[in-house]
Predict the 3D structure of the following.
Amino acid sequence: MGLFKSKGMVYRPVKDVNLGPDSSEFYLQANVKAPRMTGILVKIFTWFLESPIFGALLLYILKGNNLIHKLVTNAELEESPLYVPLHHFEDHKEQEVKSLDSALTPPEQVQLAIDCLPTSSEKALNGTNSSFCRWTIMDYSRAYNSGDITPRMVAERFIAAVGESSKLPLQMGFFINYNADEILRQANESTLRYQKGEPISVLDGVPVAIKDEIDCLPYPTTGGTKWLHKQRPCIDDACCVKRLRLCGAILVGKTNMHELGAGTSGINPHYGATRNPYGINKIAGGSSSGSAAVVSAGLCPIALGVDGGGSVRMPAALCGVVGLKPTFDRVPHSGVLPLNWTVGMVGILAGTVEDALIAYAAISGEIPSHKPSSILTKINLPLLPLTRSITDIKLAKYGKWFDDSSDDVRICCSNALSKLQDHYGWKTIEVTLPEIEMMRLAHYVTIGSECSTALDSFGEKKHFAELGWDARVALNIYGSFSSKEYIKAQKIRNRQLQFHKKIFAEADVIVSPTIGVTAYPIQDDALKTGELDYINGAALVRYSISGNFLGLPAVTVAVGYDKLGLPIGLQFIGRPWAEATLIHLAFAMQAICLSEYRKPEIFYDMLRKD
């Protein structure tokens, strides 16, 4: 295709780019040129894409129309490539934190997190009470210790609720795999520990769901496919799962996900669409769709997901729950499907910020044998009762980017940010974050190339016909990226990291909406084929990319609803290793919004007193 080579973007040196509010940098909105397709249309499109005659030409046209050639392939930039966003540890002197000793066990780390929680009287700002509260990990612990409720009772309710949710008329699509006998076995063991007065931790007996991208015995790890677990058997728990198991958590099964993480809707043609508890005809988001939905519906207070391109934060925001993506390598990746090894990270979905903190404490920390002790990082936990005493927080806001969303999202997030400033006296500073769309495309090239390469080692081509139609399209595009494009994308990664470091020299966090649109309808024609909806997809990932591409920690917290009552999230992006500050801010935001939280349309009360 050299004959048709288009002129590439010439990027100015980083030092010459103005990041201030008066910058002349042009904000390029997502230039997505691809119609929504499902059913027979997506099948025809796939046939053309896989055709030896038309495929290469069609891919070339698609990449050109969507500016990949101009902004990535043929771009000229002086930066060297940065292949892995691994950050040297830097102590940011975070305010009101407690440090974890690296020698602690997961239950000991959880206990320290409990010591960081507010009392019940401190939960809501100025003593206001929420009209709707989700049961927390501490609620489960108190109920079990009182003897009013047992883990066995909760397990039985859970099994009944999942069974009900899986059938007509709901068909919520929460799980790919769960085993009632296995759940009851764990619950019986936990019940016995409580009867003896010997619970392992506050997580003992608490139901926790695991995305089907993370190894968790005795279940296969399918990645949302019908074949991958046959090529890569699950032989052990992932590190993060082992740590939860050591705390006594009941691991209740493997949650549904967008096939291979290759989409944002959570519609899986093999295992069903995961439906949003706030509107069962709406998407839950992806790819950690099931994990977000089970937390939203009250089935579990926490769940694990994997965030490769907003895949924890996006469904968390769409389903009205908390989504925490730690710094790259904060949580060991051992036992996670190697689909996108430089952008994907284990993340947490939780009903409250406090529960996200407990889960974070349980699963964080290097595996000591994997790194020299001289470079082990420090883990800080936020002292949440002292959040109000934190001073001089600066929140960086890029106005053009912040406002590039639906009216409901823009207004809701702007109002939430204003309330945060008013209540805590924190300051917003206007900045310019240049080349956002270029970063999105560079991330797309990166995650696509890594996914394609990883699947090739599992014999993906032999199983191509077993993939959903939308996943086949995605993998055809992923496989078209060249080594030149991958390296150019890594140059853009280096460039963007330099921009973000400059922003973080002036501000503690970057604030934005989490998603550009709220949950959109699930169309019946998408249920069997999946869907291609790159316009909505670009809007959903708009604010997520730096967290993955640059390995930065980020958190989303619910701040309101659109006109249809669908949730909206606000996101804080932090410096590497500064999760404690992010959790402080999310907790502050939650305290302001708590009284306005609404009960989902589909909700199961696991701790009810019959």
Notes: Residues 124-128 have pLDDT under 50 and may be disordered. Residues 14 and 499 are 7 Å apart (CA to CA). The longest strand covers residues 554-561.
